[in-house]
Amino acid sequence: MVSRLSFLLVCVLVSSSFVQKPGVSSKPTSVKTLKSADELPSSLDWSNNNGVSYLTIPRNTHVPQFCEGVWAFVATTTISDRFKVLFNASFPDIILAPQVLLSCDYASNGCTSGDFLTAYQYIYTNAITDETCEVYQGKGYTDGLNCTNFFPCYTCSPDGTCAVPPTYPMYNITGYEMISGVTQMLNALQNGPISCGMQATQVFFNYTNGIIMNTSTGNVTLNHAVEIIGYGTQNGVNYWKARNFWGTYWGNGGYFMIQQGTNAYGIEQYCAYGDPNPNIIIVNSTSDIKPEPHHHHPHHKKEIEKIDSTVKKILAGSERQPEYPMKYGRVPKVFFENGERIIGKRSWETIDIQAVPAAWDWRNVNNTNFLTFTRNQHVPVYCGSCWAHGTTSSLADRINILHGGSFPVLSLSPQVIINCHAGGTCNGGNPGGVYEFAHSHGIPDDTCQQYIAKNPSHYSCSAIQVCETCTGPVGSQTCTAVSNPKLWYASQYGKVSGAANMKAEIYKNGPIGCGIEATEQLENYTGGIFSQFIPYPRINHEVAVVGWGSENGEDYWIVRNSWGTFWGERGFFRLKMNSDNLGITLDCDWGIPDLNR
Ligand SMILES: *[C@@H]1O[C@H](CO)[C@@H](O)[C@H](O)[C@H]1NC(C)=O
Ligand SMILES: *[C@@H]1O[C@H](CO)[C@@H](O)[C@H](O)[C@H]1NC(C)=O
Ligand SMILES: *[C@@H]1O[C@H](CO)[C@@H](O)[C@H](O)[C@H]1NC(C)=O
Ligand SMILES: *[C@@H]1O[C@H](CO)[C@@H](O)[C@H](O)[C@H]1NC(C)=O
Ligand SMILES: *[C@@H]1O[C@H](CO)[C@@H](O)[C@H](O)[C@H]1NC(C)=O
Ligand SMILES: *[C@@H]1O[C@H](CO)[C@@H](O)[C@H](O)[C@H]1NC(C)=O
Ligand SMILES: *[C@@H]1O[C@H](CO)[C@@H](O)[C@H](O)[C@H]1NC(C)=O
Ligand SMILES: *[C@@H]1O[C@H](CO)[C@@H](O)[C@H](O)[C@H]1NC(C)=O
Ligand SMILES: *[C@@H]1O[C@H](CO)[C@@H](O)[C@H](O)[C@H]1NC(C)=O
């Protein structure tokens, strides 16, 4: 038994997700002259720079499948964070897609192993899309997810077909450089995080807190890569602060500290960074010379057509027609099994409506963006989970607001909502179920369950369906439950309707979820203030309202959709406020996060 265990551990240790690839040459970067350590600040932390966090969402390479793709995550996350530094943490967070590298960067080896330097080279040469174009799937070209016509951007439709969107944004870097040693690392860190190789041993797997000290007496072999986000001194020991990509349940919320100045575990011998290009590239796929995208048909096409039985029950109990098509995924009425849960007064009973500002936008309040990243519910396959997206994004935004916009930015997992059948499935659902679940069970972040846009084979809120980790080798992985993951709860939840009450609730507590009748005209929206006359809107889609404003005398809502950043105004749309508004003021929902549980 003991020898078998140690054999397994050895397997983990020799497997190497990071290997250096020779022959990648740097391109000139912004760091021209090096300063000595005493000319630089004595400490720096990009998770808290004067109270502002410049870090994007935490990530996990080990879900939904085990993949030795850390080289790709380190590069995309370092550059995503550097975009956040470049844009002063303003809206939106840009989450570059490691999946593009795993499938298309042939200089590395997909989910087998790779070098972040080839990723920098790839992004410099080709540019890269974000997570809403290519969601992480835990596979690469080495194990079946090849760089097809659906790279670097696609999205899927209710009929099960997928296609390249007419336009989509791409991001690139203007230079990148390989560096090593304390002085170069300190200098590069002044402009944002950096990527570094290291040797991961059992000490690292077991890490929970404190500074990992250099215990090595000899040579090290780099087999892993991490993102260094700062440095400082604690009890006389200089350290690097870094983030790992094994979920928030690893280490200290996904982070660790390691001794500085002794090349502990090889952390100072192979690093890189790139300068983000502020000019975002908008690709027009209809004018590009491209092979015609062939339509592929996801396996679950048939499922889309049948309405889930619980949803049917809710529909039957509502005033709307049960046979109403579930094209977009939300039932016609918010439905709380046990009624609303209200403690004290509702926001609009406590706020003087006159005191609500004429314009409000949670993407920029006091120069701070409080919103979590924008998602696409329709990749890697179509899924009618809008009801799980509008609600989890609003709850996550409200957690950010309660935290004052400080570290950490998180995203709550819509996949757990689907796995646990908390309101519905990919065939449609009820936002009310999400809040009830947030109250009774709690929701973990995305690093526990990566979004796969699929119904589970068995709906169950078992530990493994709520939070898991997978170990290799690639191709014959084992996934196990993670015990006691951090869960985020709601203390109250309820409904709201009518513009005045919606404004009071948004202003006081943050974004809300709202039902609308999504139409083909809305699907085709590309910008501006949308309006469409529908005599009796039939609610079929869930979105989140994050604010309101006025342009040329026209009042509008600022609405977050879950159809990707390439849709509308960077994933958002503005909707006429008081009429011709797809019924957005009829049926909204909200929850209050409970940070004390
Ligand atoms: C995917 O790419 C690999 C490596 O280029 C190749 O061996 C494999 O045949 C491809 N698979 C498919 C399904 O195209
Ligand atoms: C990336 O940015 C550079 C500017 O450094 C630009 O010249 C280049 O064309 C861009 N690459 C792509 C693929 O657009
Ligand atoms: C790591 O944890 C395992 C399991 O708790 C333990 O057996 C092992 O001794 C630890 N290794 C080190 C290097 O701390
Ligand atoms: C740190 O590790 C290196 C090997 O990387 C070794 O040569 C050195 O002696 C160690 N230093 C300390 C202070 O432990
Ligand atoms: C580490 O080992 C490699 C190969 O075994 C050797 O080329 C390299 O010089 C060694 N590095 C140090 C710092 O000893
Ligand atoms: C994309 O290109 C096509 C063909 O040149 C053009 O008709 C269309 O207006 C362009 N779309 C955008 C959004 O620029
Ligand atoms: C914005 O700043 C004002 C004035 O300092 C403060 O009262 C308010 O709470 C801040 N709002 C948020 C959401 O941080
Ligand atoms: C960045 O944001 C901070 C905090 O809101 C503000 O004080 C600073 O002026 C901004 N800097 C730039 C360059 O916009
Ligand atoms: C939406 O766009 C598609 C594709 O361009 C077009 O065929 C369709 O007629 C448009 N629908 C509406 C309602 O504008």
Automatic annotation (TrEMBL):
The record's GO molecular-function terms, alphabetically, read: cysteine-type peptidase activity
Q: Which Gene3D superfamilies match?
A: Cysteine proteinases
| Alphabetized UniProt keyword annotations | Disulfide bond, Signal, Zymogen
Q: Where is the Peptidase C1A papain C-terminal domain?
A: 40-275, 356-592
Q: Pfam families per the record? A: Peptidase_C1
Q: Which GO terms are recorded in the biological process aspect for this UniProt protein? A: proteolysis
Where does the signal peptide begin and end? 1-26
Cross-referenced InterPro entries, in alphabetical order? Papain-like_cys_pep_sf, Pept_asp_AS, Pept_his_AS, Peptidase_C1A, Peptidase_C1A_C
Q: Which family does it belong to?
A: Belongs to the peptidase C1 family.
Name of the protein in question = Peptidase C1A papain C-terminal domain-containing protein
Write down the species: Stentor coeruleus
Q: What is the lineage of its organism?
A: Eukaryota, Sar, Alveolata, Ciliophora, Postciliodesmatophora
